[in-house]
């Protein structure tokens, strides 16, 4: 082989080897891409992070001051998210670093520092340790312009600065989840105690033994301030409307306090408590919330309230608190002394002096409902008219008193058709010279009734079939 041919062959072999190396390098670069240039950081300034006890932050999205109390950061307005606030001293103030420095910068407006998007100042007592002014985002990079301690140089810093300083209120604040009940059908019990409002208790019982409607029209019973149960007015709406107030809690303001600070707001010895028990939509799992009501703010009239189990003070308006705790119990009560479904009763005996009227309900062997007044058979229409006469006797007011010594002018005794569903009940009405007679129901005299309604019913008794 000629020498020139050997040279050319050698050059081709070298070229092929070079191309192979280039190919392998390109393939390696393709398989293992880099993230661009390596960023080098340098420290701008250092502070004693452990001495920081106050941080002031003012940005285009949020303004607040964080104070350290023990190991906890607090704010006068909000409950702070401790994990987030701790990132400021632990991650930012302990690493005050930059990527680049401009010693002789142009005007502040060029960097967004004429009106900084965020200003953070950290203090140890009255001594300011550092001031950070955050400007615009660098157009071509994920970093920001920044100035430290009012000095002339402008620095380029990592976006971590903005991540911590350019956030809205919700980022720094811990959310206090207030109870929420999906519907009034989920409410099971309401209890109000204390000296500020009238004591109150109402409970939902789907098997209310004194509900003689035969259709569960009165699942709610009011047991306080009444001394014996009265049915809540579910039919006409007042009680159901009232239940709407307990579905959610709305606070004008929520702020964190230490357990030993509740006394400042009258919450160490609450003046009233409201407890609401409720069920989930399945009706199986039950929950409850309790509001402890303390002092009243003299300037605003708002109440300081604590949600039991939460170390925070809720500020609630007087209107909302009174709507939940101060209302006319009588207006929420069903006023008829007795609501009889003709099929739910077996026997109802009314006595006034020597006059007696007895309503009887039986069933025939074929299952037909049979009705009698004083032993005289009546039809379903007449039985309904009797029930309406009973329901027409409506109480007029809540006036608790003792039972008079004299005999009642009217007594109504109820025997249930199904003793497994209902219990016997006795209603006594006593004459009163005021024109409003006293009603004793289930052994307690809590309400009055217009004497004219009682007279009308006694006259009905005199004209009833079989009357003697």
Search tags:
468 residues; 35% strand; 28 strands; nine-stranded antiparallel sheet; alpha+beta; single chain
Total count of helical runs of at least 4 residues: 8
% residues in beta strands: 25-35%
- Rg, alpha carbons: 40 Å
Helix content: 10-25%
Shape call: elongated
Mean pLDDT: 90
Q: Care to count the β-strands?
A: 28
Our measurement of the CA-to-CA distance between the termini, rounded to an integer number of angstroms, reads 151 Å
Class inferred from helices and paired strands: alpha+beta
Describe this structure in words.
By secondary structure, the protein is an alpha+beta fold. It has eight helices and 28 strands. The protein has a nine-stranded antiparallel sheet. Strands 23-22-21-20-25-26-27-28-24 form a nine-stranded antiparallel sheet. Strands 4-3-2-7-8-9-10-6 form an eight-stranded antiparallel sheet. It is elongated. The model is unreliable at 21-36 (pLDDT under 50).
Would you kindly provide a brief summary of this structure?
The protein has helices at residues 3-31, 82-93, 160-165, 169-172, 238-243, 318-325, 380-391, 451-463, and strands spanning 42-43, 54-59, 63-69, 72-74, 97-98, 100-102, 118-124, 127-137, 143-148, 154-158, 187-194, 200-204, 220-224, 230-231, 253-256, 272-279, 286-296, 303-307, 312-316, 345-352, 355-363, 369-373, 376-378, 395-401, 410-416, 425-430, 436-441, 444-450. It has 468 residues and is α+β, with helices and mostly antiparallel strands.
């Amino acid at each position: 082989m000629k020498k020139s041919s050997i040279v050319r062959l050698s050059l081709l072999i070298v070229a092929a080897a070079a191309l192979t190396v280039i190919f392998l390098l390109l393939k390696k670069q393709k398989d293992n891409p880099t993230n661009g240039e390596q960023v080098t950081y340098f420290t701008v300034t250092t502070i004693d992070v452990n001495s920081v006890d106050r941080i002031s932050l003012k940005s285009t999205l949020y303004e607040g001051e964080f104070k350290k109390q023990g190991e906890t950061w607090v704010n006068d307005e909000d409950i702070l998210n401790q994990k987030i606030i701790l990132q400021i001293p632990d991650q930012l103030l302990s690493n005050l670093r930059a990527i680049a420095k401009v010693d002789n910068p142009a005007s502040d407006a060029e960097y967004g520092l004429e009106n900084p998007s965020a200003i953070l100042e950290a203090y140890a007592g009255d001594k300011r340790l550092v001031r950070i002014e955050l400007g615009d985002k660098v157009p071509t990079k994920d970093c920001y312009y920044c100035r430290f301690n009012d000095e002339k140089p402008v620095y380029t810093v990592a976006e971590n600065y903005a991540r911590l300083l350019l956030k809205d209120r919700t980022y720094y604040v811990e959310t206090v989840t207030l109870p929420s009940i999906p519907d009034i059908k989920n409410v099971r019990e309401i209890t109000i105690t204390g000296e500020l409002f009238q004591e109150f208790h109402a409970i939902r019982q789907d098997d209310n033994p004194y509900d003689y409607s035969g259709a569960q029209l009165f699942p709610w019973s009011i047991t306080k301030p009444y001394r014996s149960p009265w049915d809540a007015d579910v039919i006409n709406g007042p009680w159901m409307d009232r239940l709407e107030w307990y579905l959610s809690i709305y606070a004008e303001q929520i702020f964190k306090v230490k357990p030993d600070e509740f006394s400042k707001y009258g919450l160490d010895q609450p003046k009233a408590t409201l407890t609401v028990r409720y069920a989930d939509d399945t009706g199986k799992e039950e929950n409850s919330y309790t509001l402890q009501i303390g002092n009243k703010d003299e300037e605003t009239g708002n109440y300081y309230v604590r949600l039991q189990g939460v170390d925070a003070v809720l500020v609630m308006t007087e209107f909302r608190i009174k709507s939940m705790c101060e209302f006319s119990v009588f207006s929420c009560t069903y006023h008829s002394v007795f609501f009889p479904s003709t099929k739910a009763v077996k026997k109802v005996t009314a006595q006034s002096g020597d006059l007696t009227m007895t309503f009887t309900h039986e069933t025939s062997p074929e299952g037909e409902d049979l009705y009698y007044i004083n032993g005289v058979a009546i039809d379903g229409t007449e039985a309904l008219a009797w029930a309406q006469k009973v329901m027409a006797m409506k109480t007029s007011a809540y006036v608790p008193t003792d039972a008079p010594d004299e005999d009642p002018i009217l007594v109504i005794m109820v025997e249930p058709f199904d003793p497994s569903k209902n219990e016997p009940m006795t209603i006594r009405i006593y004459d009163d010279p005021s024109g409003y007679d006293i009603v004793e129901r289930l052994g307690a005299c809590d309400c009055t009734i217009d004497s004219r309604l009682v007279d009308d019913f006694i006259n009905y008794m005199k004209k009833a079939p079989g009357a003697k």
